Amino acid sequence: MRVPIDWLSEYVEVELTPVELSERLAMTGTEVARVLHHGPLSADNFVVGKVLSAEQHPDADRLRVCSVDTGDSEPRTIVCGAPNVAAGQTVSVALPGAVMPDGTKLGEAKLRGIKSSGMILAEDELGIGGEHDGIMVLTDDLAAGTPLAGVFAVSSDVLEPELTPNRGDCGGLYGIAREVHAATGAALSAPPWSDDPGASTLGSAPAGISVTVDDAALCPRFTARIFENVTVGRSPIWLKARLAAAGQRSISNVVDITNYVMLVSGHPLHAFDLDRIAGGELTVRAARDGEKLTTLDGEERTLDGDICLIADADGPTSLAGVMGGSRSEVSDQTTSVLLEVAVWDGANINRTSTRLGLRSEASSRFEKGLSPEGALEAQAMASALMLELTGATLVDGTLDVGGDGPAANVIRLRDARIISLLGTPIARERSQAILEALGFTVTAADDGLDVTVPHWRRDDVTREADLIEEVARINGLESLPATLPLNRTGLAGGLSREQRMIRRAEDVLVGRGLSEIVGWSFTDPQICDRLLLDDDHPLRALVVIENPMSSAQSVMRPSILPSLLDAAAYNMARGAEGCALFESGSVYRAGPSDDGMAASEHHGLGAIVTGPVREPSWADAQPPAARIESAHALVSSVLGALGIEWEVEDGELPFLHPGRTAMIRTAEGLLGWFGEVHPAVAASWEIEQPIAALAIDIGRASALAPTHSIFSDLTSFPPLREDLAVIVPSGVAAASVVSCIIAAGSPLVSRAEVFDVYSGEQVGEGRVSLALHVDFAAGDRTLSDEDVAPLREKIVAALKVELDGELRG
Amino acid sequence: MIERVTEIQKQAEAEISAASSSAALEDLRVQYLGRKAELPQLLRDVAQLPPEQRGEAGRTANQARQSLEAMIEAAAAGFEAAEMSAALADDNVDVTLPGSPLETRGHHHLLSATRREIEDVFCGLGYSVVEGPEVETVHYNFDALNHDPAHPARARSDTFYIEGGGEGPEQTLLRTHTSPMQIRIMEQAPPPIALIVPGRVFRRDSDATHTPQFHQIEGLLVDEGVTLADLKGTLLAFARAIFGADRELRLRPHFFPFTEPSVEVDVSCFMCEKGATSGGERCSLCKGTGWLEVLGSGMVDPNVFAAVSEHGYDPDTHQGFAFGLGIERIAMLKHGVPDLRFFYENDLRFLRQFG
């Protein structure tokens, strides 16, 4: 919305500069996005001129040499290229020294040998409309030399306020004027609809038209007046200039009047050519599915049953509250006009304009919800202009279906409530003055004020808190004290255990040299194929977005892995040899979750490491490349930090290397996986080297973490350590060897850990040698070799029997 | 014998004094005090002397041996320190070479680091941190938060809806703000409550200043006697913790469906003085206004309490304030990040600058 200050000043005596006014409005709740300027920066040197004579230029066919009276002692010579310039015309003249809207300063210039001291102006030269087919011709009652700014708005600052959705009443200049009045104390004029030429016609409907409203909920009020003997033509220059400053194009006097009144009152109007309303009857009804209507912009629209339209005997003729239809459009031939001012259901208009992709000045105002009373205000203002500018006569009667809105609400505003909500008092007199300035009616009450809400704030101000906001915003929040809440008891605050655990896990990875990324929750549905998921794989249960911005962002990610691969590919395409990344965030699965949420979401922690495990350096020129054991180590670090007991088991996942996939098993079930990304998957991200990866359901993991550790005495009786080298068939998992040793040595084996793996000639084909540290400990004494020797024998025997293992000699 | 001992001692003392390295001293020790040396031999021979001579001879020889041992030890100590210094001085490396392994510090993403920083400020003020679902329902995201049925944010042009997500209040969508947790928490816990809700939110918007996903932190405090002035004090504490102790706060009236009154909150610019840099230039951060818009907030709307009244929230006795801020916005302001896109590109050259 554009608010030309020059025009606004007709309703309120603005004394602040545009910037000051913007700041004041911003501090009282109306943000001003921009301050613009329309027309030349200054109106100086733009005056009214009288063309005394216009002669053909001796050396140029297209130029005329005019003698123009501009109020000076002598007429001045102006060379003019317009075809329509003629003696006797009253015109707009830019004198030498005038600065044109594009910034050029007008001087005296010779045109084909004749000195021209000024310029006779066409509309577009002042930013009024696009017409350049001739100069502007003004009315003859203007005296030569009159400053042009006194005739129409030559130069105006323009505010562009950003209206909040609750302020439908500020969709017109008069509403803004009322805000300016309340915010600055500037005097407010009476509303421009105070004098209704049709006041005497209220109460009876005009002859020649009937209106049926099928659904009053969609159309709370429908009013119409009929004008006859209308002469459709051009609008006067002052009207064109105002519309132009507000960013609107002039079309014809009748259409311009509807736009002008909308811009002032905030209430959209629509003019029908009465003779083109078939059957002389209008019906407001819901459209039928598939029904078609060609709107004023020439587009044929296909409607549905939720859309409200206005139909005549021949079918749809207007899209209610959004845009008129071309069939009943006012044209040059129009002589009878039906002026409709209605109120539509905001939610319905919003749906319609969204569904049709059609937003208009009208729809954006109706969406905010307009008051029924405002319809007759717009009728009153438009009627006066119709009579004045089109020569029309008003047919007796005002059609009115629906009438005024509900009775005004009266709300008690208690002084005590102001203090308790704001934390600071506002004097009752001050509250009263503010509310009255905003158009509320106020009477005194014992403990405050009884406040009657004006119709234009009916939907917005319904409770005491709303009144307090009105008073507070106009009174200003600058002086509000800054305090902290009192009476706080029992609120310790802090992170939840899960949040602390997640932070701990993230910190472990950062400490291990990984960098965190933040990926997109959105992904491409093709992600399932890229991850080689089978058709019935559970990860294919995608959360699908109904209205995505693109197909590449049309589903929610089912795994944390792809965004990590995206980031790795991005960085490797930019020269990184490898990378170590992690992400901590939501992953999604369709269908209700265990706790009744609409979709299953869990907090995933994923990491990938590819390339050298450390950056090569002068002392460590060829560090090994990251493989599955790198991921394993990271899982150990994270789960170890959380104190979670876990085991590794062989696994199978379509997106991981089939020989290098491990599942993370806890007593509560699987917690995640680690391994190496399947080379075919890596290739789809154009990565040709092994990628170690892991994913942990960290939300669930943190719930498994013990709340606190209990002391164990590990220092009084140190363990006895033995190293064992065991040769087993190469299919035997290291974890089986460890658990065999622990079981056989129970209860004195406190730990068994593989520290070396060897296969080769010395152990024979199909065999592998594992070297393990085995710790023996008892909680109540230091063990001796004699204690351990029998256990050692038991372990050797168990390895032999259970795993076909033997001690390496 | 005593003469011989004295002679050996004198000779040994002279040689020890003249010795020039710990190796030479070791040779002398073997020569004079070793198993086959003369002085220990003499000492052993004392037993064969007549009894009346044994005492003096033994004493003399023993003293000589102890004296020489002490002398060698003292001399050796001096040499060892000097020799170790010399050896260490030879054993040098170019200390300006990089560490190895090279710096393996990882990094928190700037958004996470900023989120933690803000969480910690509010934890210190006694707030709990809670999180909620990103796939939400129309009820929690709009209806219960007093959004008008025609509120433009509900439009399909603004909000992502989930396919097959049903109709009416139970229709599912991607939450457009972290505010739904206001309702979920109030359903679970009676007042007083003080909490913040960090999390990812989604809006159908993508241009230079919007990404379709971004991160917010919601705050909610409900108790008896909570005022707008308390909101101002709380946010002032936040602003000073994040942007510096000299910051001031400005509240501008605004409109949000779930608060009344509603205010936008500006923090005084930390790069300039009232819009002008120290060099007198127009500040590029605050565009010369002296203020940075950081968040929206207000007093909880009575209608929001009405939606949870059965859980102990009575608009007549309880008041509260709520606020919502964008983590991206705070991070950009504080760290001078010029473009939102950096946050989601995950370029290591960006990631390694922070956290």
Notes on the structure:
The complex is a heterodimer of chains A (809) and B (355). Chain A is of the alpha+beta class. Chain A has six domains: 3-39 and 157-184, Phenylalanyl-tRNA Synthetase, Chain B, domain 1; 46-154, OB fold (Dihydrolipoamide Acetyltransferase, E2P), CATH 2.40.50.140; 199-401, 3-Layer(bba) Sandwich (Phenylalanyl-tRNA Synthetase, Chain B, domain 3), CATH 3.50.40; 410-475, 2-Layer Sandwich (Phenylalanyl-tRNA Synthetase, Chain B, domain 1); 497-704, BirA Bifunctional Protein, domain 2, CATH 3.30.930; 720-807, Ferrodoxin-fold anticodon-binding domain (Alpha-Beta Plaits), CATH 3.30.70.380. In chain A, 25% of the residues lie in helices and 26% in strands. In chain A, the strands form ten sheets. Chain A has a seven-stranded mixed sheet, with helices on both faces. In chain A, a hairpin with a 5-residue loop joins strand 32 (647-650) and strand 33 (656-666). The longest helix of chain A is centred in the last third of the chain and has 19 residues, at 785-803. Chain A starts with a strand and ends with a strand. Chain B has 355 residues and is α+β, with helices and mostly antiparallel strands. Chain B contains twelve helices and nine strands. Chain B has helices spanning 2-18, 22-33, 38-45, 51-90, 110-124, 138-141, 180-188, 228-243, 302-307, 327-335, 341-345, 348-351, and strands at residues 128-129, 135-137, 172-174, 193-202, 213-223, 249-256, 259-268, 291-300, 319-326. In chain B, the strands form two sheets. A seven-stranded mixed sheet of chain B has the order 1-4-5-9-8-7-6, sandwiched between helices. A two-stranded antiparallel ribbon of chain B has the order 2-3. In chain B, a hairpin with a 2-residue loop joins strand 6 and strand 7 (259-268). In chain B, helix 1 (2-18) runs parallel beside helix 4 (51-90). The model of chain B has no long low-confidence stretch (mean pLDDT 91). Chains A and B meet through helix 6, helix 9, helix 11, helix 12 and strand 27 of A and helix 5, strand 1, strand 2, strand 4 and strand 5 of B.
